[in-house]
Write a structure and sequence with these properties.
Strand content: over 45%
Number of domains: 1
CATH topology: Jelly Rolls
Bound molecules: calcium ion
Radius of gyration: 15 Å
Distance between the termini: 27 Å
CATH superfamily: Galactose-binding domain-like
Number of strands: 11
CATH architecture: Sandwich
Oligomer: single chain
């Protein structure tokens, strides 16, 4: 798969175990300024607080979540729920929220949801959410990635990512 030129940034990972079979990760970008490369971080009216990430002209990929399956759970993952709040700048601004599971050499699972599917209104935060059952054969050293992918060259912001992993 293509090379992500965005710097992969594992940010404020808070993997919590609410129960034995569900592991949740979230990111609101409120506590990362000053700690990491925050070139894709914006300050303004976030969905939560003052910070959010953006895509657009010259920024095809937004801030990327990337974590090895083994660092999420030692057990096989059967399902992933993912969500984020997005804000388009104008009617022709579009992006896709991508779930990509990658081995060292290739992409083994890839899915995406388009912002258009949520009928967003320019300037307003809209939630994108999807759930996917994973095929058999997901290995502990595979990396789970989630990011906003924008080929419209128009600004699309994102905030408040949440990802939920369900064990088999
Ligand atoms: Ca925020």
């Amino acid at each position: 798969m293509r090379t992500l030129f965005s710097i992969l940034l594992i940010i404020s990972i808070s993997v919590s175990c609410r129960n034995a079979s569900k592991h949740s990760v979230s990111q609101d970008f409120e506590n990362v300024a000053g700690w990491f490369d925050t070139s894709k971080l914006n300050k303004g009216k976030g969905h939560s607080g003052a910070y959010f990430t953006h895509t657009g002209a010259g920024v095809e990929y937004g801030q990327t979540f990337a974590l090895k399956m083994a660092d999420i759970t030692q057990n096989p993952i059967r399902r992933i729920d993912m969500g984020a709040w997005v804000r388009i700048s104008e009617p022709t601004a579009t992006a896709r929220l991508v779930l990509s599971i990658e081995s060292k050499d290739s992409t083994v699972f890839w899915q995406a949801i388009d912002t258009e599917s949520a009928s967003p209104k320019p300037g307003e935060w809209t939630r994108l959410f999807f759930t996917y059952d994973l095929p058999e054969g997901m290995l502990p050293d595979y990396t789970v990635k989630m990011f906003l992918w924008n080929r419209s060259n128009k600004t699309v912001d994102a905030d408040d990512f949440d990802i939920h992993f369900y064990e088999k």
